[in-house]
């Protein structure tokens, strides 16, 4: 007989893969299992449809390789080859939106080697143009990206 804990872990792993969002590696970066560690909702396939006047939800699992005192988002949308800040998201601190792997509230500073989960939601503002863009999303420690991904989206 299979122990209950193993069944729960297996179901959690299957659910995590099933709800992962297909995201792209950032240029010159390679993050192992990137798509399994990023989930955008609602986003069933790429390009993700971001509906104006709604909220988009994001969950990112990450493990820093060094201690980090403060973490901020750096989110841009490439419009006609020009990266523009994603208004309402870019530059925001995420320190109050982080939990440990066990679901306990965490805050900055973050410890190297510890698994964290960042959960947030952000508005898709009504003044955004109706356009297809590539979003670059990075978690920043100071001026350095320690985790990033890119995803094609269509603002509708």
Structure description:
The chain is mainly β. Strands 1-3-8-6-7 form a five-stranded antiparallel β-sheet, with no helix packed on it. Strands 2-10-9-4-5 form a five-stranded mixed β-sheet, with no helix packed on it. A hairpin with a 2-residue loop joins strand 4 (71-79) and strand 5. It is built from one helix and ten strands; from the N terminus they run αββββββββββ. The protein has one domain: Immunoglobulin-like (Sandwich). The N and C termini lie far apart (50 Å).
Brief sketch in words of this structure:
This protein has one helix and ten strands; from the N terminus they run H-E-E-E-E-E-E-E-E-E-E. It is mainly beta and 156 residues long.
- Give the terminus-to-terminus CA distance: 50 Å
| Annotation, overall tally of beta strands | 10
Main beta sheet: 5 strands, antiparallel
Our count of domains comes out at 1
Task: Kindly provide the radius of gyration, computed on alpha-carbon positions and rounded to a whole number of angstroms.
Answer: 16 Å
Q: Low-confidence stretches at least 5 residues in length (pLDDT < 50)?
A: 1-19
What name does the CATH topology carry?
Answer: Immunoglobulin-like
**Discrete helix count:** 1
Percent helix: 10-25%
Helix/strand-derived category reads mainly beta
Globally, the shape reads: globular
H/E element order: HEEEEEEEEEE
At the first level of CATH, what is the class? Mainly Beta
- Examine the secondary-structure arrangement and name the CATH architecture: Sandwich
Q: What value does the average pLDDT take?
A: 84
What fraction of the residues are assigned to beta strands by DSSP? 35-45%
């Amino acid at each position: 007989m299979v122990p209950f804990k193993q069944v729960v872990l297996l179901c959690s792993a299957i659910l995590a893969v099933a709800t992962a969002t297909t995201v792209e590696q950032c240029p010159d970066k390679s993050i192992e299992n990137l798509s399994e560690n990023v989930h955008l909702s609602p986003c069933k396939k790429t390009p993700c449809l971001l509906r104006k006047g709604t909220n988009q939800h994001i969950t990112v699992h990450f493990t820093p390789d060094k201690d980090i005192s403060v973490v901020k988002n750096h989110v841009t949308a490439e419009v006609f080859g020009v990266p523009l800040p994603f208004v309402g998201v870019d530059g925001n601190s995420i320190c109050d939106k982080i939990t440990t792997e066990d679901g306990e509230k965490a805050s900055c500073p973050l410890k190297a080697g510890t698994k964290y989960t960042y959960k947030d939601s952000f508005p898709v503002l009504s003044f955004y143009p109706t356009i297809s863009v590539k979003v670059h999303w990075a978690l920043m420690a100071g001026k350095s990206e320690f985790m990033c991904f890119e995803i094609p989206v269509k603002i509708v």
